[in-house]
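Lecture 7 notes: from sequence to structure.
We start with the chain below.
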Amino acid sequence: MYKIIKRLFDVISATVLFIVLLPLFLIITVLVRLNLGSPVFFLQERSGLHGKPFKIIKFRTMREDKDSDGKYLPEELRITRLGRFLRSTSLDELPELINIIFGAMSVIGPRPLPPIYDHYYHEHERARFNVRSGLIPPDSIDKEPILSWDRQLAYEAEYAINLSLKVDLRIFFSVIRILMRRKQSDYGGIIRIPLNEERK
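Predicted C-alpha cells for the same chain:
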C-alpha cells in the first residue's frame, strides 16, 4: 500500500517542483549552452527498478575533450567551474524530475548507477533493485557527504528492505543538511573510483 502512496507523492511533488523551478531550469539551460555548447543535457543508461535500464537526464557538467587517440580525457580535466557548482549544489540533477514524473525514478531511493556495475554488487546489496532509484539517496542521513561504495550500498539495501513512510521522512528532511555539507566539501569536484574498478 505504501508503494502506491509513494508513487502518487512522486508524481505530484515532481510535477509541482518542475513547474515552480521552471525559470531556474531555463536559466541553467542557457548557462550550460553558453558554457559547454550543445547538447545541454547529459543522458546515460542506468539500472533502475528490478534492474531495468532507463536513460537518466542531467545537465552537462563536463566538456567533451579527447586525447590524440580519440578517448575522453579524465573527468577532473573536463569538468568546468560551472559544472563543479552544479554538482556541489545538485542542480545538475534537476532534470531528473522528468525521470520521476514518467516513472523511472522516485523522489527518494538508491542512487541510479550504470549497468556496468550490475555484476559487482554483493548478494545482499541487490535488494536496492526492489525499489525505484531516487533523486535523494538513503545515505543522505549520514554525517559525511562522501561515502565509500560499501557504506553507500549498505544504506541502499537497508532502505529497500525497510521501506516505510517514517524512513522516507527522515531522509527527506536531511536534504538541506546534505546540500550544505556538499558545498563545504567541494563535492562537485570529487571523482570517485568506479565500483567496477574498485571491486574487480
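Points to note: DSSP finds nine helices and four strands in the chain. The CA atoms of residues 125 and 153 lie 6 Å apart.
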